[in-house]
Amino acid sequence: MAEITLVQAVNLALARALAEDERVLVLGEDVGADGGVFRATDGLLARFGEARIVDTPLAEAAIAGLSVGLAAQGFRPVAEIQFTGFIYPVIDQLVNHASRLRTRTRGRLSCPLVLRAPCGGGVRAPEHHSESPEAMFAHVPGLRVVIPSSPRRAYGMLLAAIRDPDPVVFLEPTRLYRTLREEVADDGAAAPLDRCFVLREGRDLTLVAWGGAVRDALAAAEALAKGGVGAEVIDVATLKPLDADTILASVGRTGRCVIVHEAPLTGGFGGEIAARLAERGLLSLLAPVERVAGYDTVMPLPRLEHLYLPNPARIVAAARRALAYA
Amino acid sequence: MAQQTIARFEIGYRRCLGPDGAAAGGLPDFARDAATLIALYRAMVRCRAFDAKAVALQRTGRLGTFASSLGQEAVAVGVAAAMLPQDVLLPSFREHGAQLWRGVTPLELFLYWGGDERGSDFAAARQDFPVCVPVGSHAPHAAGVALAFKLRREQRVAVAIFGDGATSKGDVAEALNIAGVWQLPVVFVVANNQWAISVPRRRQSAAETLAQKAVAAGIPGEQVDGNDVVAVREAAEAALARARSGAGPSVIEAVTYRLSDHTTADDASRYRDDAEVSRHWPEEPLLRLRAHLAAAGRWAKADEERLLAEVAAEIDAAAAAYLATPPQAAASIFEHTFATLPAELEAQRAAVLAEAPATPAVAAG
């Protein structure tokens, strides 16, 4: 089995879904002949044709709105937004329509769409290309919010998202698109959309992360291990619905927790996880919960983005503060 | 070199019946059949009776905020009458007449406006969209529904209705543009009632007509007298036939007038002269079709009385049924958030169940 990248795994899952379900179609800007600006849809036009791989005019709100109409009619649209900086016009469609069509009509109409977008920084991209808006989507009832952190997970979670009967926002960490390869079996097996994954076990503290930050957390755990500290690493993977039980169980064992995300600190999804720990795990905490996040500033342009993004050193420092707390 | 003209556009205007009910030009074939005209008239009377009852219920604290369609009945009824049952309607919030024509019941509409989601779970017109409140945001849905029809090679048409204010929005521009590029089977109807809450038509756009919004999208647009149900139906039939045959989308601007406040929460006297409203009453749509039928000897006082009584009985019964409908069970808040309730929401569901009274109170009585 060949090792493939995360973006190739996305492509593999899209092809699988298109082949197995004629209701699935892919739409977005440059998804056809160009194969998507990141090549996530490379080769799909040749294989599945223009009726199923649909290049749209340059109109993000309409891409989401079209998807609502298609989904209400029984299609399974998988829409691509080129960068998260361009995703904001679709929020109206997601909040006011996609997420609530089912409940507004008591299940008469529903909205099984997937909205894919690359997210996060670390690839020296231009302005508006490196943002992490996951908490905005996680705040919307009726949406699922998924961020894979490896090729295998991307394959299984994207298949699950496409098969899910409700709308899913599927954010793909840009900096992991090509930096990581692993074997991915094209077996059509979906990964669960309601579970966190423990990527590394450890008994001294818990590192909780998602998306690109998972790799930083794993690197930090490796560094901590060299100092004799066992760090458990949890990939949240699905922010909404949140599998708080897995996080609580881990922190129940370790008593210390560092939450890592690229998005700005205030109102970030780390705050929600910290709140769950305060509500249900307070007595097991041996130290205040630490958060390593982007700052409450506009994300700097590429020359300084390394100072903004969480990195292993910042995570290790936070872990050491948590460990030193008595 | 002198500048050349490289493109020319014109916008037509259609009217069949003048305000006095007299034919203002050729009538379409359907308008020569009195039974057809009476059915249109009946639908407008029914819509107005529903409307009046809804306002009365709201004024007495038994319905939520309501958007009256007083004076605009011909737009909704004329468009719906041109549609086939298998077409899909995507209404704004002032198209009660279209919904009623397509089989949505007065009870369902009362439930919706009374604050109960079951009002959008229509027993008929199962694929029609629910009312769209965020202005114009349903226009792209219509393009998506139409794309679904086109991909499945179905001879069906999506019909979106929105107001003059909606034409200022990007959603509408994007939807028209995409429908044009892909030649989708969709009809966009602008119910131009001259007022977007307090902003008059002239402050909404510098364009001479709203129908010409179609021009930039490369699709046909026409303006029609929106208080003339015959003209609206004729224009809509042409647009639907065009879409159904694969010839693509179109825009109809139906020029009408909002005789009511924007909603029951609005007081139009803050921004609009009563004299202006009074000037528009003689042009309202029921009056002219009734005058037309009466002049043809097809409508007498007794017919009118019989129709009003019949419609009042239906609407009163629906209102009584609405008032007697208990609210949904507390758990219904969670029931349709997702197809399957995520485990994470179970605790929240249990919390609302613990708080809810054992016996639900009656709707809004």
What report would you give on this structure?
The complex is a heterodimer of chains A (326) and B (365). With 326 residues, chain A is of the alpha/beta class. Helices cover 36% and strands 19% of the residues of chain A. Chain A has twelve helices and 14 strands. Chain A is globular and about 60 Å long. Chain A starts with a strand and ends with a helix. With 365 residues, chain B is an alpha/beta fold. Chain B has two domains: 12-323, 3-Layer(aba) Sandwich (Rossmann fold), CATH 3.40.50; 328-365, no CATH class. Chain B has helices spanning 34-59, 73-82, 96-101, 106-113, 139-151, 170-182, 213-216, 229-244, 274-280, 285-295, 301-323, 332-335, 346-355, and strands at residues 12-14, 88-90, 158-163, 186-192, 195-196, 199-200, 221-225, 250-255. In chain B, strand 5 and strand 6 (199-200) form a beta hairpin. Chain B is globular. The N and C termini of chain B lie far apart (76 Å). The model of chain B has no long low-confidence stretch (mean pLDDT 96). The chains are: A alpha/beta (326), B alpha/beta (365). The interface between A and B is large, with 45 and 44 residues.
